[in-house]
């Protein structure tokens, strides 16, 4: 190694957590580099000081306060889990999307298809029948009062 070893690599070496193929490289570097040996010794001393430090119990009030602050779900996670992403909304949204797409395809198909042809012969035959029965005046379809005449015709048939 031509450059200095990283502090994280030295710490891992000290804790015995280096990969087997990394260990020889660090050891050869430490044999040549006094600065990295000093850094390793500083880390070793810090580890010994921390290991010998007295252990104290954490006050229950502090534990409760920390748990309340860091383990309590935030308002956003509660909101998101309860309102935004319940398991019902995903299928409902998919069904709504499919229905919207089908409606759009149906409307598009109805708009661009060829217009239906009216059966002219049947319409003329019906008009001739209505004229013969007196439901349509001879003056033309626009001058007739078809609804009133049809109502009169039906009351005559029933009575």
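Q: What amino acid sequence fits the structure above?
A:
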């Amino acid at each position: 190694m031509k450059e200095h070893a990283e502090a994280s690599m030295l710490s891992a070496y000290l804790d015995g957590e280096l990969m087997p193929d990394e260990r020889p490289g660090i050891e050869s570097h430490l044999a040549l580099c006094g600065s990295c040996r000093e850094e390793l010794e500083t880390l070793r001393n810090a580890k010994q000081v921390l290991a010998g430090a007295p252990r104290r119990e954490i006050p229950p009030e502090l534990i409760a306060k920390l748990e309340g602050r860091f383990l309590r779900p935030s308002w956003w996670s509660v909101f998101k889990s309860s309102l935004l992403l319940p398991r019902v909304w995903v299928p409902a949204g998919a069904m709504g999307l499919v229905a919207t797409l089908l409606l759009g395809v149906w409307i598009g198909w109805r708009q661009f298809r060829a217009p239906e042809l009216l059966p002219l012969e049947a319409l003329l035959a019906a008009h001739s029948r209505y004229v013969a029965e007196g439901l349509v005046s001879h003056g033309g379809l626009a001058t007739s009062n078809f609804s009133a005449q049809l109502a009169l015709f039906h009351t005559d048939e029933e009575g």
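Q: And what stands out in the fold?
A: The helical segments are 7-15, 23-32, 34-52, 60-71, 75-84, 89-112, 120-132, 146-158.
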